[in-house]
Amino acid sequence: MKLQKGTSLALYSVLEFAANPGRQLSAAEIAEKYGASTHHLAKVLRELGRAGLVESARGVGGGYRFSGNAKRLTLMDVIELFEDISTRTGESDEFDASSDVGRALGAVMAEVDEIARATFRSITLDTMLKLIERQRRAATEAQPATKR
Amino acid sequence: MTRPEANGASPTELRVRPVDAADLGQVIAIDAEATGLEKTDYWYELFHRYGGGRTRQRLFLVAESGDVIQGFIIGEVRDWEFGSAPCGWVFGLSVRASARLGGVGARMLEAICDGFRHAGVNKVRTLLARDNSLVLSFFRSQGMMAAPFIPLEKDLD
């Protein structure tokens, strides 16, 4: 399962906001960090704002801040704002369902996608932030050993 | 299974200990509340096999607050399944509905993991239905990731 660019940007953004709940971040800051166009990111942030996950901050600099519940919001909640993966079974048109082989391959892809959806449904933003922190710690701990 | 985090009881008042025969009535009620099925025989059989701290390999724990059982967790050490090194395996976890979102599940998982470490293993695993998002989310929040296994099944004609 491959997520669209806008969906990936939404996940990057919402995790940046959730990691800094009190802080205002601008589209330009996030766009620069993740190598995206500010224009594209602004569209993504507007959509996140409409869904109540971020709110625009007035005043000098403007920007957005997190307004969701990181312990409740799952990756799937964010993904579904941008694309419908609820019924996707394999990459569309990847296998021709008019043949026995195509149908069987489609069934295998459906298994793969169902596991992906269950994974997205089970991971909250808060869990992702913990994972990011664990990976950061592991990378830091591994550094001296690598340098030796 | 229910959502394992609990609201009603403060984790500091909780005591996690091995199950007693006298706890079974409450354990059965908590399970029935979650699953809609009262499986009395099953729970007595499970108590016979896992209860009372009979072996370090099998753990059946309850979380108690005052004289109320708020939840239970069950697991065992599984050895060399298809060549896999011994690991702790959690196969039952439930928290009283009125006691959610207070860390009961986390305390019980911590306790059973201590038991697994004591039994000499350093990995814990579990298996859940894909659509059990709440309990999956709980285990994920405790740092569990996908294991290198694929569950399989087939209908038996």
How does this structure look, described?
The complex is a heterodimer of chains A (148) and B (157). Chain A has one domain: Arc Repressor Mutant, subunit A, CATH 1.10.10. Chain A is 61% helix and 4% strand. Chain A contains 6 helices and 2 strands. A two-stranded antiparallel ribbon of chain A has the order 1-2. In chain A, strand 1 and strand 2 form a beta hairpin. In chain A, helix 1 packs across helix 4, helix 1 packs across helix 6 and helix 2 packs across helix 3. Chain A is globular, with a radius of gyration of 19 Å. The termini of chain A are far apart. The mean pLDDT of chain A is 89. Chain B has 157 residues and is an alpha+beta fold. Chain B has one domain: Gcn5-related N-acetyltransferase (GNAT) (Aminopeptidase), CATH 3.40.630.30. Chain B has a 5-stranded mixed sheet, sandwiched between helices. The mean pLDDT of chain B is 90. The chains are: A mainly alpha (148), B alpha+beta (157). At the A-B interface, helix 5 and helix 6 of A face helix 4 of B.
